[in-house]
Amino acid sequence: MDWSLLGCGRSGHATYAPTEAQLREHLSVLTAEGPAWRCLRCGTFVPGKPRLMGPAAEAPAVRRGKEVRSAFILRVFAIERFLRALVFGILAYGVWRYKYSRLTIAPAFDRKLPIVRTLFRQLGFNINHSKLVGLIQRALTLSPRVLTYLAIGLAAYVVIELIEGVGLWLGKRWGEYFAMVATSVGLPYEIYDLTAKITVTRVLFFAINLALVLYLVITKRLFGVRGGKSAYEARLRSESILQAAIDATAAGRAAGRAGPGRAGPGPAAGAGTVASAAPARAAEPARAAEPARAAEAAGTIVPAGAVEPAGAAEPAGAAEAAGHDRGRQGR
Questions:
Q1: What are 162-168's contacts with CB under 8 Å, separation 24+?
Q2: What is the pTM (predicted TM-score) of this model?
Q3: I need a surface site. Which of 53, 108, 124, 130 has the fewest CB within 10 A?
């Protein structure tokens, strides 16, 4: 099942147009009907105007794939928490009301109990051994202070269940931690209850609570499990379509700065300068010797200093010019 498509089918496509031009190019295409924007949840290009627009930093966090499935599972647990809060809230209200009306309830119960006992006896039941009747009779003997503490305890449990339900329904990190810790605290008592007596209700509640704790710890990587929060957030970034577009844009900019047209002076450029200067210096002696050879060919005397010394060519050129000069004077 494609949970991303399921999420889009339930709440619509999550298209977003960032104000950054290069990001807009990665998240949109031109079609015959106009521009189409890519859904950040399912990846489909949706024709028409984007659902939201603004800077990339202000884009909404969109769940994809496994995160959509995880949100659905957590909301199932949240509904179960809300039902618990409703039931125990009714019990807390009933205990609180009974505290002030017990003087009228007790005589009425004692007055009606023989009638109820006779009725059930005719139906073949003996309510003298009924646990419900025994529980009611014990409750009638409780003191007002005990009833007050019981009502406060039930109300506190209702508040805890409501906080768990809200945190799980919204998929908040604090809600996951709170639900995991609050549920784990009650597991030892539920195990003790099961050792005393196994009932369907006790087994069901224990299984639900244990499943919630294990699911939160393993899938949400609570308390450092499987890399902890950093690994969990890294997985979310790796699955984000917007983050992939941001990474592609950054890679394109880096490649543009490293292109040949914008390459700055580096070691290669310096080497090229030295290499080009070396032939020029090597050609200087040849250019300096050219006037001497021209004079020799023309049979003229080259005055001293007309030609600058040029390395190894200087002694040979000077001696040759002096020999021609002495020859002419002898003749």
A1: 162/81, 162/82, 162/85, 164/78, 164/81, 165/78, 165/79, 165/81, 165/82, 165/85, 166/78, 168/74, 168/75, 168/77, 168/78, 168/81
A2: 0.66
A3: 124
